[in-house]
Write a structure and sequence with these properties.
oxidoreductase; Nitroreductase; globular; four-stranded antiparallel β-sheet; oxidoreductase activity; 7 helices; Nitroreductase-like; NAD(P)H nitroreductase; alpha+beta; about 180 residues; NADH Oxidase
Length: about 180
């Protein structure tokens, strides 16, 4: 298996982090650079990455993701990368209207994949969270009320071993030349 497939195979959603290990700034910078360089429709780059590294704020943001038994672990994540949707450029906007596809969500999904794979390549764990109190996190971080906070990606050193990946079989998700 090539290096990239090994990286993809080893990446998992980590829900426990080693509280004694901080994420090195240089690793975080490389992860953010991978996100910044990710492709987007018409090069719109419709995102802003709000990086939470302050320990007290990280706990507060993590607590704002918990609820109904969800994301209890997030308060222990040393880093949160919040992904805020920004405006698309005119070309992406027109393409989205003509083709009835909302490209910013696709673009942010691609950037998210880049972040999680870059974290894995740095020996870090990550988990993509979509369940959180958006108003509370905006209040904590100064994200304008009129912006959409779409995702919170937790980053840290995993505290647990890798799990076996469970995926649908190839024949259930891949076909050639027809559906």
């Amino acid at each position: 298996m090539n290096d990239f497939l090994q990286l993809v195979a080893s990446r998992q959603s980590d829900r426990a982090y080693d509280m004694s290990r901080a994420v090195e700034p240089e690793k975080l910078e490389r992860i953010l650079e991978a996100a910044r360089l990710s492709p987007s429709a018409c090069n719109a780059q419709p995102w802003r990455f709000v990086v939470i590294t302050d320990p007290e704020l990280s706990v507060k943001v993590g607590k704002a993701t918990a609820g109904l038994g969800m994301n209890k672990f997030a308060k222990d994540a040393p880093v949160h990368i919040l992904i805020v949707e920004e405006s698309m450029n005119i070309t992406s906007f027109l393409g989205a209207k003509i083709k009835d596809k909302y490209f910013p969500l696709i673009d942010i999904g691609i950037a998210t994949a880049h972040i999680t794979l870059a974290a894995e390549s740095e020996g870090l764990g990550s988990c993509i969270l979509g369940w959180f109190d958006e108003k509370e996190i905006k209040k904590l971080t100064g994200i304008p009320a009129n912006k959409r906070l779409l995702l919170d990606i937790t980053i840290g050193y995993p505290a647990k071993d890798k799990r076996k990946k469970s995926r649908k079989s190839k024949d259930k998700v891949v076909s050639y030349n027809h559906y």
